[in-house]
Design a protein that fits this description.
The complex is a heterodimer of chains A (161) and B (405).
Chain A (H helix, E strand, L loop, with lengths): L4 H24 L7 H19 L1 H7 L2 H24 L14 H32 L10 H8 L9
Helix pairs in contact in A: 1-2, 2-3, 2-5, 4-5
Chain B lengths: L1 H9 L3 H23 L19 H5 L2 H17 L4 H11 L13 H10 L6 H17 L1 H11 L1 E3 L2 E5 L10 E6 L10 E4 L1 H20 L1 H7 L5 H20 L3 H20 L5 H31 L4 H7 L7 H20 L4 H6 L14 H20 L8 H8 L1
């Protein structure tokens, strides 16, 4: 769809605002509806939109696979790290009260980092799923994964029902 | 909801099944969002404008009111002083089995109930009547009293060692309670290890420790080399879920851990070299999602009726609304849901073969020792959840389970 002028212009115009809206949802999660999960999905949606217009290959150049896979793990590690920080500072697991001298500030700080971890992981997972669907199981050498699997299959008759 | 369920059951097309499943789940979420909507309500965030909203249904099921009445009845003779006539009249009315003489009887229950609920010692004869009265209430309120012991329990680092007194259902058993995030148990998520939970935890982790080295050879045989890391990651996730179901004391947390373990189980099944593994995993996904949806409906009903998600708290509060229709419906949903999960969770094809899931593509799959091991421990584990859901003593479960194997 790269040649479609309207889509390209509108997409370029909209994507920054989608990203901004994701950040708004992320940080508004402290006070109302919102939070890391929704923000992560919106972030990923912006990237999916970009990939739909300009093609998956160009999107993969913007957010490469290694970055997506790092995001998957980094978010979970950030979440767990906040929990362990609570332990190290003398509280229970995921104890936000001890993260600052003032317990209310500690709560703010804890939920900020935890939500950041959630947003990173969720957007990573969404992008990963999209990339896998978009490339339809194509392996780097261009061969379909299912073909390579099928070669190793021993054929036999089967019925599901 | 019914339309979604109908589509899932009646349609053979896998995509249509998935559509039906999402209709089913969306309707359940809407069902819970609808009564939860409060005009002008916000998320429960630390803020000066925030005020506590209490569920009217839960207020009706408040156990404190019940106990307060009892305690008041017990304290009344003491407050009236030592007027013998009023005492005897009172005792005769409330307790017909009390001896006519006013000799003091030091049953353990008497002493305990006085110590726990009456700050001032009441006169001798009156206390006997009050104690008999409280004894009846005491049995009902035993878990609550255990809950009171929570707060007086010794603190060991982050853990709290609970020692419930005699008379509680779990007599003289120390249980460990851990408040995640330092929110105290009835409100926050509590991890709790009592005697049964420690046994099941030992069973599950022991099985995993046995199975993982044992299954090495069959994993080499069954799974392509470049997918091994996925197998071990999913095994770890599944183990996390199973251990979490056992250790948590929060009803909704059980659902979350159930989802973790069952989702990773689907991946474990789909990893096989056999092409049919994918379809089998898909069928498990459908069955498991229906089961999980039923479980979340049941938990939601229980939460609506009792106003609590903490299992110990719920076990106490549910006695007041035990025979109301939503609770019965909730137990029915839980029974069906857990039964579905118990069939879906044993990823072991062997177990699936013996159950009705044979029709759903569970047969002929490659045997994988790892899955079997975890599947075997999923069964007692779900029974453990069963025990906590109060259905255990009402269903002929041993007969059902024995008949089905």
């Amino acid at each position: 769809m790269k040649n479609d002028l309207v889509l390209r212009v509108v997409g370029k115009l909209l994507i920054p605002f989608i990203l901004l809206f994701a950040l708004y949802v992320q940080f508004h999660g402290d006070f109302g509806p919102g939070g890391g999960f929704q923000a992560g999905t919106i972030l990923a949606a912006a990237m999916v939109f970009y990939a739909l217009i300009f093609g998956v290959d160009i999107a993969r150049r913007v957010v490469p696979d290694w970055l997506v896979e790092t995001m998957l793990a980094a978010g979970v590690l950030l979440y767990a790290g906040v929990g362990i920080a609570g332990l190290l500072l003398g509280g229970n697991f995921l104890d936000y009260f001890v993260l600052d001298a003032d317990p209310v500030h500690g709560q703010h700080r804890g939920i900020f980092w935890v939500e950041a971890g959630v947003a990173i992981t969720v957007s990573g997972v969404m992008l990963k799923i999209f990339y896998m669907f978009a490339s339809r199981g194509m392996m780097p050498n261009g061969e379909s994964e299912w073909n390579s699997r099928a070669r190793t299959l021993q054929p036999h008759r089967h019925s599901y029902f | 909801m019914v339309a979604g369920l109908f589509i899932v059951i009646a349609r053979g097309n896998l995509i249509k099944k998935l559509v039906g499943l999402s209709i089913l789940q969306t309707s359940v979420y809407l069902l819970y969002i609808a009564p939860g909507k409060l005009l002008g309500g916000t998320a429960p965030i630390l803020s000066p404008q925030f005020s506590v909203y209490s569920n009217p249904l839960a207020a009706r099921a408040d156990p404190h009111r019940h106990r307060r009445r009892r305690r008041h009845a017990g304290a009344r003779p003491g407050a009236r002083g030592a007027h013998p006539r009023s005492l005897r009249q009172h005792r005769g009315r409330r307790d017909h089995h009390a001896p006519a003489s006013t000799t003091r009887q030091h049953t353990p229950q008497d002493v305990r109930s006085k110590a726990s609920s009456e700050p001032r010692p009441a006169p001798a004869g009156a206390a006997s009547g009050a104690a008999a009265d409280l004894g009846a209430a005491g049995r009902a309120a035993a878990p609550r009293r255990a809950g009171l012991c929570h707060r007086h329990g010794r603190r060991l680092g982050g853990f709290r060692l609970l020692r419930s007194r005699s008379g509680c259902r779990s007599a003289r058993v120390a249980s460990i309670s851990y408040a995640i995030g330092s929110w105290p148990p009835p409100w926050g998520i509590e991890y709790r290890v009592d005697r049964l939970a420690s046994f099941v935890l030992l069973l599950v982790s022991g099985m995993a420790a046995l199975v993982l080295p044992w299954s090495r050879a069959s994993i080499e045989r069954e799974i392509p080399r470049d997918l091994h890391y996925l197998y071990y990651a999913m095994f770890g996730l599944c183990l996390t879920g199973l251990l979490g179901i056992t250790i948590t004391g929060d009803a909704f947390n059980i659902f979350v851990f159930l989802e973790i373990s069952s989702l990773s189980t689907y991946v474990l099944i789909a990893l096989g070299r056999d092409r049919r593994a994918l379809t089998a995993a898909y069928q498990y996904l459908i069955m498991g999602s229906i089961g999980a949806t039923f479980i979340v409906i049941g938990i939601g009903f229980l939460y609506l009726m009792t106003g609590t998600l903490n299992l110990a708290d719920m076990a106490l509060r549910i006695r007041e609304v035990e025979n109301s229709r939503p609770v019965l419906a909730a137990l029915a949903f839980l029974t069906v849901g857990i039964s579905l999960e118990a069939c879906a969770l044993p990823a072991a094809p062997v177990a699936a073969q013996r159950l009705h899931l044979r029709a759903l593509g569970g047969h002929g799959l490659p045997r994988r020792d790892g899955d079997q091991g975890l599947g075997v421990c999923a069964d007692p584990l779900l029974l453990h959840v069963f025990g906590e859901s109060l259905v255990f003593d009402k269903l002929p479960l041993p007969q059902i389970m024995l008949g089905c194997r």
